[in-house]
Amino acid sequence: MRRAICSGIMAVSAILFIVMGILVTMFFSQIIDNLIYKELVLKVGGETYEMWRKPPVEPQMKIYFFNVTNPREFLQGEKPIFREIGPYVYNEKWEKVNLTWHPNGTVSYQPTKTFFFNQEMSYGDESDLVQTLNVPLVSAVEQMKYAIKLTRQALGSMLGVLNQETFTVRSVREFMWGYNDILFKLARDVMPPDVVPHDLFGLFVGKNATASDGIFTIATGAKSKKNYAAIDNWNGITKLPFWQSDKCNSIVGTDGTAFPPELTPNTTIHIFNPEFCRSLPLVYYKDVVHNGVAGYRFGPPVTTFDTPATNPDNACFCPPGVMERDGNCGIKGLFNISSCKFGAPMAMSWPHFLHGDSKLVEDVVGLNPDVNRHGFFLDFQPKLTIAMQATARMQINLMLSKVEDIKQAVGLREMAFPLFWFESGVVKLPEDVSQKLKMMAEMPEAARTGISYSMFGLGGIFLFCVASMIWKRMKSNSYGAGGVNNADVEFEKGTDAVTVHKTNGKIRSTEESSDFPR
C-alpha cells in the first residue's frame, strides 16, 4: 500500500515538474521582460529615471575646421584648397532640467549640455587661427541675390565703409563661442529678438550650459512601452512650420537619449533635434558586439540627403520657391536648412560630403569621404534599445551663389563651401553600466534555461523512479503467481523430507520419517 501511494505521489510530482518546465519555457522570459520594462518607466526615484535625467556617461564633441589655404586664388576662379584642422575636443555633461509631470503620462523638460575644453585630446589650443569665409557677409550678400541692382550696389558700398572682407581669420574660441561682428550687430538692431537672439556671432553661442534647445514633452512609458520616450510635442507644437507638408514637418521619434524597447532589424526609429530642422530616420546596418553584449548598429539611410529624383520622400523638404525658381531641389548629399535658419544660406551634409554627389568633392581640394571616419551610427542593445555606443556626425556648409554688383562677392560662385564638421556621442559606457546592461540582456534567458532544465530534469528523475518501481512490482507479481502452481517442489530440512506434487490440480504431500527418533 505504501509503495502504491509513494508511486502515485512521485508520478504526480513528475507531471507537475514537466508542466512547470513547459510553462517556464513559454512564459518566464516574458514575465521577466515585463518586470524590466516596468522599471524603464520614467518616475521620480527610479534608477532609470536618474540615468535618464543625468546620464552617467562621458560624452564628447569633436570639432574639425576647414581652413582655406588659398583665399585669393579661390576668388580668382581656382578651387578652394582646404586643410582640415582638428579635432578640438570638448567633454560634455548632459542634464535635463525644469521637469514637469503631466497626468496623461508625459513629462516636460529642457535638455542642457555643458562643454569643457579638453586640451590633452585636442589637436591644438582654442587660440589656434582658422581662415574661412566671412559668414555674416556671405549671408547678407545672399539676401540681396534677387534684389534690384541699386540695392545690391548700396549693400556693396556699405560693406566697403565697414571694411568688410570676403574672408576672415578668427581663433577657434571665437568661432565656437562668439565674437563681435558689425554686420551681425546691425542685423540684431533691425531684426526681431527671436531671429537674432545673441550679441555675438559664433557656432555655439548660447548653447553652453543653457536650455536653448527648447522644451520637450515625451511619454514616460507608463501607458505603453511602445511609445516610451516618444516626443509628444516640442515647444508646444507637434509640427514644424518650415516644410511643404505635414509629413516633413512632423516631429516624431525621441530626443536621442532614450528609445522604445524591443528593437528589431525591421524597425525604423527617428531622432528629432532642433538643429537638424527635422526628424532623422535610423535604419538597421549590421550586428555588433560590445563587451560581450550583442547589439544592432543603426544609422541614417544613405538616401537621407538625396534629391527627390532618387528619394521622392524628400520632395517636401525642398524650400519654398526653390523648385519653381531653379527647376531642381538642390544636389544630392545636401540638406538645405535656410528655411529654418532665417534665410541664412546654410546646408547640412555628412562630413566630407559622404554619400553626396561627386561634384561636391570635385569642386574642392582636400576632402576625402570615408564611411568609417565620417559615418553616423548608434549601436543598441536591442531588448532595451539602450545605446552602447553613439557617434553622430554632421557637416555645416555655406551655399554660395554668383551675385552681381557687390564687390565683396566677386569670385563667389555656385557651390557648397564646407565650414566645419563635428562628431558628438559616447564611445563606450561606464563599466558598471555596461555590466548592468549585460546582466539584463543575459539574465532572463539564462534563468529561463536553468529553471526549465531543472524542472524537466526533476520531472524525468521522478518518472524514472516511478517506472522503476512499477517494473519491480510487476516482476515480483509475476514470480509469486507461478511459485507453487507450476512446479514440483521437494523440500528437505535436516532428516525430514517433504515432497510436494501437483496432480490433477490437487496438491499431495508425502512425509517420510527418518531412522532417528524425533
TrEMBL record:
Listed transmembrane segments: 7-28, 450-471
GO cellular component: caveola; lysosome
Subcellular localization, as worded in the UniProt entry: Cell membrane; Membrane, Caveola
Membrane topology per record: Multi-pass membrane protein
Pfam families found in the cross-reference section: CD36
Protein name: Scavenger receptor class B member 1
Protein family membership: Belongs to the CD36 family.
